[in-house]
Amino acid sequence: MSEEPASARRGKAEKPWTLDYAKSADKDIGRLDPPIQKRVIEALEKLTADPHSGALRKLKNRPEHKVRVGDWRILITLDEKTKTIQVVRVLPRGRAYKR
């Protein structure tokens, strides 16, 4: 008698979210020092498993969410339909909230 995996018993496993980078975010990440770049990419990869895990904060009066990585802020938007995380910008804290 074979045992079904736990994920099969609960129904379909959740499809992970995908990352989509805006041109400005690609440039921002490319300009970072390698250790910070690595931390930013690791933080984004963790978000693909569950973006509502608690590391994400909604910005007031703006459509974006933010993720804090040390002194850096990753500004993202979420598309619930397509399960896509759009990375808008990666900026130091002081510049992240100025429009």
**SSE order:** HEHHEEEEH
> What's the Cα radius of gyration?
16 Å
Count of β-strands:
5
Task: Please report the number of helical segments.
Answer: 4
CATH class: Alpha Beta
CATH superfamily: RelE-like
CATH fold group:
YaeB-like fold
Distance between the termini: 62 Å
Strands in their spatial order, largest beta sheet: 1-5-4-3-2
Unreliable residue runs: 4-9
Report the β-strand fraction as a percent range.
25-35%
Q: Which assembly state applies to the chains in this document?
A: single chain
What share of the residues lie within helices? 25-40%
Describe the structure.
The protein has 99 residues and is of the alpha+beta class. It has a single domain, classed as 2-Layer Sandwich (YaeB-like fold). It is built from 4 helices and 5 strands, in the order αβααββββα. The chain has helices spanning 6-10, 23-31, 34-49, 93-96; strands spanning 18-21, 56-58, 65-69, 72-79, 84-92. Strands 1-5-4-3-2 form a 5-stranded mixed β-sheet. The longest helix is centred in the middle third of the chain and has 16 residues, at 34-49. It starts with 5 loop residues before the first helix and ends with a helix. Residues 4-9 have low confidence and may be disordered.
